[in-house]
Amino acid sequence: MALAMILSGTIGMVVTESGQAPLTVVFFRCLIGGGAMIVWLSWHRGWRPMTRSDAVWLAVGGYRRCVSRGCCARRAFVRGAPRPR
Fold it and tell me: Residue 43's domain spans which residues?
């Protein structure tokens, strides 16, 4: 748990110091995470045929994840966190 919090804090610091818009950071985090997941699944042969139901749940989960991250990032700047310069 401590390692997760350290990682989370350093990511937050990098985001704040980067000066990028929160939604831009969220988009690229999701894009990089999705790419890493594809590489991992390919490496470990974790691919299996998806049903239509699986595909729908995957799309809904991905959409909710991105929306959640976008809302959290936007809320951090609304609540008085330092704005990028």
Answer: 2-78
